[in-house]
Specification:
Elements: H1 2-27, H2 39-60, H3 64-70, H4 75-99, H5 106-143, H6 156-184, H7 191-195, E1 243-247, E2 253-255, H8 257-260, E3 266-273, E4 279-289, H9 290-297, E5 305-310, E6 316-320, H10 321-324, E7 330-335, E8 338-339, E9 349-351, E10 364-370
Parallel strand pairs: 1-10
Antiparallel strand pairs: 1-2, 3-4, 4-7, 5-6, 5-10, 7-8, 7-9
Helix pairs in contact: 1-2, 2-4, 4-5, 5-6
Amino acid sequence: MWKKLKQLHSYNGWIILFLFITGIAIYLPALRGTLADYRVSIINIHIVAGFLSILVFIGYFPYLKKHWKIIGNSLGKQVNLVITLSILTLWSISGLLLVFEKSIPAVMSKLALSLHDYVTWLSVPFILYHIITRLKLILSRRKKDNSSFTGKKLNRREFVKYSISLAAVVVIGPAIYQWLKRTLFNGGMAYNEILEKPLENDLRPFPIPAKESRPPIGGGMKGEFRAYTVTKIPHFTDQNWYFQIDGLVDHPQLFTWQSFLKIKREVQVSDFHCVTGWSVHQVTYEGIPLRKLLELAGVQQNGKYIKFYSGDGVYTDALALKQAEMDDVMVAVLMDGQVIPSEFGGPVRLIVPKMYAYKSVKWLVRMEITDQPHLGYWQVRGYDTDAWVRK
């Protein structure tokens, strides 16, 4: 049995290392552009490795009772085993929910993503501690010529050491997670935290919010945004910003910032869903319904699609004309009565609430009406063209 346990432990260790590497490649916003061409493949490989880890985990359960008996007189090893099994269980459950996130409620998907991230970063100090202690144990066993696995009971000094180590994992782990998330990964930032930062864009005058925007009729957004980008965030001023509507239209439009703000805006409350599983609810947007801009330009009879261009010069996406005419598709200027920060796609971004957020193009500067479909930045890299959010 002991030989089989060692073998399962070795398999699981290598799989978890691989999951860490691929998981970081998926998670880090800084790598989204660099690894964009391989992102879908990395996600699929990560999922396969996750299933393999679950199979190894299941294969261990027939030995759990005997394993527990062997280590029964060692408190440190009992704690180690309980924490290890808890981490693997939470990883497995949250990972499975994320794989099938389109079939589960949005709130459950969001909780699964938060749990998956939290457990991952919480496990880092524990795994490092586990590796160090295992190495010490292996070295000591080599000196004792393969002594048995049964350990002696902990003395007071060892008990204190293990207790402090466990406390460090539980208390310091979440702090490490939050620090990594906020400083290295630019993720999980509340909207008011972004607003406290100096505005990257410098456009004057500021749009005057409608009375429905401040205070926001949605009651204020619920949740945290994760600021993703595949390029460097562009910087705009009222001198270099423009908004253009061209292609198959009767009246091509070219707006400056000042003339764009003169277009009548409307207010709506919408949810914002990312394909990775997180959502922000009850966002109060103020902007111009896309159908109104299309009416202003006059779409020609052979116009069937709209190609959207980001001001970063790289990102594009598209909607069929019928999709673009949905009542809640908007070219947004304000969020909850505030100027949209550059991290979230300001000064102007597209909002398509019924589709995942990669369709809601950031830093929107141009709309081209065409008679041919267009595959956007993420579609050519494997994402769905019709990115409908779960029902």
